[in-house]
């Protein structure tokens, strides 16, 4: 019998991909930065733009970010994005000293009929301003929170060493294997 509900979906979409990321042995700092950046970009106040912003960040940052964890955290941030639209709008209005955009059913009717275009554009600008000011603080706070979490998780789940700087074998083991290979190479000639 197939399981239905939130649990299996959450496990398939969030837990399994996170475990795969952790088992591949990425650096905790890189994972923490990427997850923090993914959520920061994921709460961008214009719906539908966050995946594009994340792709641009991956392209610009290259190997400095971990693309799968950035995209996973961006996906996780979707419900948070919707809940932060109004706070970003109000914060932007506060910062600019602009007019208060009414969130009433009458305002919604005007938006849907196209009668409130100037007010809507101004509210979008205010929400963007609120996000632009808050984004560095969101990124820094999430990084500080995520770093110890990812250190613990990578240590627990990782199957490979944390860094290419940490060798799989000691230098003497590598030297002995290289010497044995060279000896074997000359014996076959």
Explain what the structure shows.
This protein starts with 5 loop residues before the first helix and ends with a helix. It contains 8 helices and no strands. The protein has helices at 6-23, 28-42, 50-61, 67-76, 78-96, 105-113, 117-157, 171-187.
SSE map:
Layout: H1 6-23, H2 28-42, H3 50-61, H4 67-76, H5 78-96, H6 105-113, H7 117-157, H8 171-187
Number of helices: 8
Q: What separation lies between the terminal Cα atoms?
A: 64 Å
Helix content: over 70%
Characterize the biggest β-sheet: none
- Beta-strand percentage? under 5%
Give the quaternary arrangement of the chains. Answer: single chain
Extract low-pLDDT stretches.
166-172
Instruction: Report the principal-axis shape.
Output: elongated
Q: How would you state the average pLDDT, rounded?
A: 80
Order of helices and strands: HHHHHHHH
Count of strand segments: 0
Structural class: mainly alpha
- Based on CA atoms alone, the radius of gyration comes out at 24 Å
